[in-house]
Amino acid sequence: NAGVTQTPKFQVLKTGQSMTLQCAQDMNHEYMSWYRQDPGMGLRLIHYSVGAGITDQGEVPNGYNVSRSTTEDFPLRLLSAAPSQTSVYFCASSPLRRRSGNTIYFGEGSWLTVV
Amino acid sequence: AQSVTQLDSHVSVSEGTPVLLRCNYSSSYSPSLFWYVQHPNKGLQLLLKYTSAATLVKGINGFEAEFKKSETSFHLTKPSAHMSDAAEYFCVRSDAGGTSYGKLTFGQGTILTVHP
After folding, report:
1. Do A101 and B102 touch (CB under 8 A)?
2. Which of A102, B47, B51, B89 could be stapled to B59 by a disulfide with Cβ–Cβ 3.0 to 4.6 Å?
3. What is the spatial distance between Cα B20 and Cα B76, in angstroms, rounded to a whole number?
4. What pLDDT, in 10s, does the model give residues A74-111?
């Protein structure tokens, strides 16, 4: 049971380049999400998904695209990277049941630098 | 919008002394509350969670937190700090129901420094 797997762990991009951060979970969780972490701001929600084929925007969605073609995978795409997207990115998943309190599982993080 | 406020951005203690990391949340129908820890260049690890079963929650590594509805607080404590506790700690809420379902709201984080 690998949990939540994120790749790559480290990436340096040039401004304007595109890339995809991969996220996969093997726990059959319906809910998956992407956060970015910036100093002094905690984690902020970028996009989330409550199941295959369903995605929605979070707090800071601009500059990012997502898709959810399978339950397991939830990739995050940067179409044209900007220095403001330099951050640490976390993918998370959890079961989706009609009560809160389900443990959220986080990936190890992806450190992205845009130069 | 529901919020979480961590009252201290930095806390410094000596090894062997108590730890107190403070967290307040905005009032709503009962949220679920979590404390996560993040060691440098690592992911987030769950310390403990409150889901309305018991107000005093015990977590891993000797940490515990008490949910106080009257004070809208969920402070994290540990009786005796260890050097390995040095990390950043996040108070997190999860709200049930409506369009907020499953969404997490993070506090700004508290960096804990432990001195020998």
Report:
1. no
2. B47
3. 6
4. 999 999 999 999 999 999 988 775 454 567 888 989 99
Closest CA to A112 of A87, A81, A92: A87
Q: What residue in B sits closest to A58 (Cα-Cα)?
A: B103
Residue A101 has its nearest CB partner, among B32, B36, B109, at: B32
- How far apart (Å, rounded) are the C-alpha atoms in residues A102 and A95? 7
User: If we measure between CA atoms, which residue out of A90, A49, A93 comes closest to residue A67?
Assistant: A49
Structure tokens at B74: 């969920």
Mean pLDDT of B46-64: 88
Interface test with B, best of A23, A35, A100, A111 (most B CBs within 10 A): A100
Chain A touched by B56 (CB under 8 Å): no
Q: Rounded to an integer, what distance in angstroms lies between the CA atom of residue B18 and that of residue A112?
A: 36
d(C-alpha A29, C-alpha A110), whole Å: 21
CA distance A85 to A8: 15
Residues 6..65 of A with a Cβ closer than 8 Å to B: which? 31, 33, 35, 40-45, 48, 50, 58
User: Mind telling me how many Å the CA of A110 is from chain B's nearest CA?
Assistant: 9
For chain B, the average pLDDT equals: 87
